[in-house]
Amino acid sequence: MNRFFTFIYGTASYLVFLATFLYAIGFIGNFGVPKSLDTPASGPWQTALWLDLGLLSLFAVQHSVMARPAFKRLLTSVVPVAMERSTYVLASSIALSFLFWQWQPLGGTVWEASNGFAKAALYGGYAFGWGLVLLATFVINHFDLFGLRQVWRHLLGKPQSGLAFGTPFLYRIVRHPLYVGWLCVFWFTPVMTVAHLLFATVTTAYIFVAIQFEERDLMAVHPEYAEYRKQVPMIVPGLPKQVEIIPAAIPAPITRTRSA
Predict the structure, then answer these.
(1) Which of 20-24, 107-111, 133-137, 186-190 has the weakest average pLDDT?
(2) Is residue 57 part of a domain?
(3) Inter-residue contact 155 to 6 (CB < 8 Å)
(4) N or C: which end of the chain has fewer CB within 10 A?
């Protein structure tokens, strides 16, 4: 396939992701977007509940299935290897945008912070979560994670190459800082509505299920990951430490599973 087209495709996929990412900040935080997580309910709560569960399930299936090695092999039999990650990013952005579009608020408030300091702290936690999500992508390799590195190398005529396994700073504190950021985004809110609680509960459950699949894939590709798991906590951060990993006999091609 034409190298320039592949590069344009990868760039466009990244821009779609970026727009979706920015919209998600307003959607979950309930500001600056035409429709948010807690837009006033307009129909029967039973219908809204089943529709929202369906939307969350659709995103979870897409996000997980396309991240599995078997699906990647199938996909790269149809599209160039350089386009595989961009295709995943584009499909995830479309699935998430569809969720934003069709989301049905449920009405009802579970809790609400009335104290000014508590509100500020919860908004601060929400902002911290988004900052951590973004920082965690750059600590790994932001451009590889979202497919730009692959299409750029393809444009230059360079062979695709993976990233060596590593434990940069955040990954010496917790194995999944990206997910820690997402958990902060989902749960830090001054007003917890029924719809927000549903969204936070389902996405949190998905995260813990996804971790099991990701770590299984990582240990299959990187034998040293098993030792890394023993030294660094999964979600609850610990103190920074010097991780001691015995290198594998044959270097593995990627640094970690990319599913978020």
Answers:
(1) 107-111
(2) yes
(3) yes
(4) N
